[in-house]
């Protein structure tokens, strides 16, 4: 097995970078959807978030391997995974399921709150908001 622990900081910072890029891309797509929906038809705006999110998940899995922490065993990590799953679901409401602009906006705010909650959990290694 390849020893990845010496690359922990690199993997961690790449995970953080792709997480930040994920929220920037999501927010950009939201603005485009609200202002210029035709811009969402571009190939790069449809493909880039999926590539980034795949990298984000890959780095998350690598971090779990390197730190020997499993989501269902480590309480704070379980809570983070739950927050991320809820973030993804609210993102679907924003981009596909909500029909009104008001509904999309409300779901967008909820998605942002979940994203920053997951980030807070990761920073503090605790599911409590403080």
Characteristic terms for this protein:
2 domains; 77% helix; mainly alpha; 130 residues; single chain; globular
Word description of this protein:
The structure is a single chain. The protein is an all-alpha fold and 130 residues long. It has two domains: 1-68; 70-130. Helices cover 77% and strands 0% of the residues. The chain has four helices and no strands. It has helices at 8-35, 43-67, 75-97, 101-124. α1 (8-35) runs antiparallel to α4. It is globular and about 45 Å long. It starts with 7 loop residues before the first helix and ends in a 6-residue tail after the last helix.
Based on CA atoms alone, the radius of gyration comes out at 16 Å
Average pLDDT confidence is 92
Structural class assignment? mainly alpha
Q: Secondary-structure element sequence?
A: HHHH
Shape: globular
Query: Could you tell me the strand content as a percent range?
Result: under 5%
Count of helices? 4
Give the N-to-C terminal Cα separation: 38 Å
- Low-pLDDT runs of 5+ residues are none
The biggest beta sheet reads: none
Indicate the percent of residues in helices. over 70%
């Amino acid at each position: 097995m390849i020893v990845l622990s010496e690359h922990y900081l690199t993997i961690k910072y790449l995970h953080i970078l792709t997480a930040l890029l994920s929220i920037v891309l999501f927010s950009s797509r939201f603005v485009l959807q609200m202002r210029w929906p035709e811009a969402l038809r571009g190939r790069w705006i449809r493909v880039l978030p999926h590539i980034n999110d795949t990298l984000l998940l890959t780095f998350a899995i690598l971090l779990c391997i390197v730190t020997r922490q499993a989501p269902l065993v480590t309480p704070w990590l379980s809570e983070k995974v739950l927050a991320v799953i809820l973030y993804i679901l609210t993102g679907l409401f924003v981009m596909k399921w909500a029909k009104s602009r008001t509904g999309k906006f409300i779901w967008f705010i909820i998605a942002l709150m979940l994203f920053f909650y997951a980030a807070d959990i990761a920073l503090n290694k605790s599911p409590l908001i403080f």
